[in-house]
Design a protein that fits this description.
753 residues; alpha+beta; 10-stranded antiparallel sheet; 8-stranded parallel barrel; globular; binds (2R,3S,4R,5S)-2-(hydroxymethyl)piperidine-3,4,5-triol
């Protein structure tokens, strides 16, 4: 609901959904944000108006307002607000002091520019503020579980330049913890918490893309809030380029929050009447802690960000060739893998890097689209047809934004690669193509579209593997070019499933998710590392947005050995796939993996679209819960075990207290080899722990593990029921959870016996 009303001579606007309210006031022509948080009503407005104040000591008055001490929704230089400003305008190299004041407010306005934005039903309020140099339109849009804000600046004079323009600004009352999601390659989205104080906290990216260093999304949690309690705000930006967010507390205990395009090095000149479009920023709020915030953000992304065709649509289980083959494959090898993938239950076969030009390593070929006929004698069409006969859809990898200097494309068009006045530096042996150029965009659109259409491709993995040499507004123009390319390829082909990827999660953002519903979360597929990565991302993105694959053990990046059951269990909490050499699977592993795929497919709806919450777990353990209409699924993950463990409780939240529920553990397998040192105690002979006999037994058979079932009330489950013991130090017992380090279990909870 959006409501405009007057009270004691000033105008108010209340935006309200079931989760949050935003109360704006126009006072002496300035735009104040009196409240952003719990739902409130019109009658609350007078009580929420602060003293406009006569100022403190050296502060400056703007009419009767001391803007420096008020909660504002907009501010500009020269107005008497000395906190960080969201807008900087220049004319002929000089900074301006525009005097903005309110002109009008309109509802139901929409704006379609060059940037992606939230889709579907929205209620909107556009507030226009005008000055001698430019006018600013702030569009607030209300969705079921979030609010968005977007700023547009219209030049009123020739040569006006934008130095900084945020997408959102708010001044929140109180004390907060700021949580950002940071990292790098193979360590994306690791959460860091810091108290908000008088020194500014900044979350930004400068690599040209939203980056794996600092995801654009962040949380602000009111002190004292927690997993299920207290007030938590989530902020994010529908944008894939350099972003900037800052939070800083003022002396009046107002925390100024802003988010938008990174202003560093930014300068963009407009024509008279030209419009600068800032990306749409998203804010969600919950008074039910982080889990409440997760629910709000997830449902917003699922309903208003991802392309309509994929909303609520179950995604296929895929096999990806990368970690199994890298660049070394032939059609024969791929088809052998494809047959095995099909036998395991996969539905989509994705051919990753290495299918074109001289792409036999990452040193050559990027930019070319001619199929390598030595590897694929029947071309993409031939492979697609053969996969089709096996009952598999065909998916293909592209890295359209980059070029190797050693490629046909670069030899023909060296000027298509980005050239700055700095050195042309390589990243992973590649340069970026200049997507600001129309001919480059056309080349990509034509080649990618034609490969998709010719080979009946159902899924595209869109990779990008280096940081950008562009700075400031140049980097922004590149992103506009990228969005145009994505729009031209995928909007006429809405059924093609696009998974974006950038060396893993180097561009995991709402901008990319607007074109394709999933993104490869990280090249790190070690399940224990993934616990942190997926849990971090889950604060802002639904599990249906995260590609998560089962890979080999010992793991390629961490060298850690983990049970196959845990590799599968962690991947279940994302868009599940397989990415390992299937020829290396033992008979026992093959049947275990087959059972895992079939289990995922059976519960796919809940895994992909269930509502995710984190619940209490033992120290060093993780407990993730998914709730759907049909069932509740709990994943319990352990890191290092302790000898002689005590009972562990299974706690399930959100059930009806008086209702009866059945609990069933996923049937998992244990490797015989894990017990190899003990065989001599039960067998008449001592085969030795690493003997051929033991190794052969390990390859062929496995032991059942972790069986558990119970019947009890929702109330008992919410306080916790004891699980079967973990391996207590002696002997194998099928009733135990005999798992060792990095073990995990999945429990299915259903109403009724
Ligand atoms: C980086 C990606 O993150 C990997 O999954 C893989 O596609 C490689 N690029 C291929 O070069």
């Amino acid at each position: 609901m959006i409501k405009a009303f007057n009270n004691k001579g000033s105008s108010f606007f209340l935006l309200k959904n079931d989760e949050l309210s935003c109360l704006l006031q126009v006072k002496n022509g300035k735009l104040l944000m009196l409240h952003l948080g719990r739902p409130i009503s019109e009658e609350d407005a007078p009580a929420l108006c602060p003293e406009t104040g006569s100022g403190w000591g050296c502060s400056v008055m703007n009419g009767e307002l001391c803007l420096d001490s008020l909660p504002l929704a907009f501010s500009s230089g020269g107005s008497g607000d000395f906190r960080e400003l969201p807008l900087e305008l220049f004319l002929k190299g000089k900074i301006l002091h525009p005097d903005f004041s309110f002109v009008k407010a309109e509802t139901g306005v929409s704006f379609r520019g060059r940037l992606p934005g939230a889709r579907g039903e929205r209620e909107s309020l556009e507030i226009t503020l005008d000055s001698q140099y430019a006018s600013v339109r702030i569009i607030f849009s209300l969705f079921e579980t979030a609010l968005t804000e977007k700023w547009l600046v219209e030049a009123k004079t020739e040569g006006l330049a934008i130095g900084k323009c945020m997408s959102l600004m708010a001044d929140l009352q109180g004390d907060f913890i700021f949580s950002s999601f940071d990292g790098g390659w193979i360590s994306e989205a690791c959460r860091h918490d810091a108290p908000v104080s008088f020194s500014k906290l900044v979350n930004e990216s400068l690599s040209g893309f939203s980056s794996n260093r600092h995801n654009p999304g962040f949380l602000l949690s009111r002190r004292g809030s927690g997993t299920d309690l207290g007030e938590v705000y989530g902020f994010n930006l529908i944008y894939s380029g350099n972003h900037y967010s800052s939070v800083q507390k003022s002396l009046q205990n107002l925390t100024r929050v802003m988010q938008g395009i990174n202003p560093s090095g930014f300068l963009l000149e407009l024509e008279n009447g030209g419009i600068f479009e800032a990306p749409e920023a998203v804010v969600a709020f919950s008074s039910k802690g982080e889990n409440g915030l997760r629910r709000c953000m997830h449902s917003f992304v699922n309903a208003h960000i991802i392309p309509q065709h994929f909303q609520g649509r179950e995604r296929p289980v895929l096999y990806n060739s990368w970690e199994g083959c890298m660049f070394s494959f032939s059609e024969r090898r791929l088809l052998t893998l494809a047959k095995k993938a099909k036998a395991l239950g996969c539905e989509l076969f994705v051919l990753d890097d290495g299918w074109f030009g001289q792409r036999n390593s990452d040193e050559a070929g990027l930019g070319d689209y001619n199929v390598n006929l030595k590897k694929l004698p029947g071309g993409l069409e031939g492979l697609s047809e053969k996969l089709g006969k096996l009952g598999l859809d065909f998916g293909l990898w592209f890295e359209p934004e980059a070029v190797n200097p050693d490629s046909e494309l670069f030899r023909a068009h060296p000027d298509w690669a980005i050239k700055t006045d700095g050195p042309s530096l390589l990243g992973r042996n590649e340069l970026l193509l200049d997507l600001r150029k129309a001919e480059v965009r056309d080349y990509i659109v034509e080649n990618v579209s034609s490969a998709i259409d010719r080979a009946g491709i159902k899924y595209v993995k869109w990779d990008m593997n280096r940081h950008s040499p562009l700075l400031g507004a140049e980097a922004h123009e590149y992103i506009l070019g990228l969005y145009e390319v994505l729009e031209r390829i995928f909007s006429p082909r809405p059924q093609v499933l696009l998974e974006s990827c950038a060396s893993g999660g180097n561009r995991f953002d709402l901008g990319m998710l607007s074109f394709g519903p999933q993104a490869w979360a990280s090249d790190n597929t070690d399940p224990i590392e993934r616990l942190e990565i997926q849990q971090g991302l889950s604060c802002l993105y639904p599990q249906s947005a995260m590609g998560a694959h089962v890979s080999a053990s010992p793991h390629l990046q961490s060298l850690r050995s983990t049970p196959l059951s845990t590799r599968a269990n962690v991947s279940f909490f994302g868009i599940f796939g397989l990415e390992l050499d299937l020829n290396h699977l033992s008979r026992a592993e093959f049947s275990e993996l087959k059972a895992a795929v079939s289990f995922y497919k059976e519960h796919r709806k809940a895994f992909q679209f269930g509502s995710l919450s984190l619940t209490e777990a033992e120290e060093g353990a993780y407990c993730w819960q998914l709730s759907s209409e049909e069932e509740t699924i709990v994943g319990l993950f352990h890191t290092l075990v302790h000898s002689a463990p005590g009972y562990e409780l299974l706690r399930v939240t959100g059930l009806e207290p008086g209702r009866l529920y059945s609990v069933e553990a996923r049937q998992q397998s244990l490797r015989i080899g894990q017990f190899s040192g003990m065989i001599k105690y039960i067998a008449p002979i001592d085969p030795g722990p690493d003997s051929l006999l033991v190794r052969e037994a390990d390859r062929l058979a496995s032991l059942p593990d972790g069986g558990f079932s119970a019947l009890c009330s929702g109330s008992a489950l919410s306080s916790g029921i004891p699980l079967n013991l973990k391996f207590p130090g002696t002997g194998y017992n099928p009733g135990f959870r005999n798992q060792g380090d990095f073990s995990s279990n999945i429990y299915i909870i259903k109403a009724g016996p």
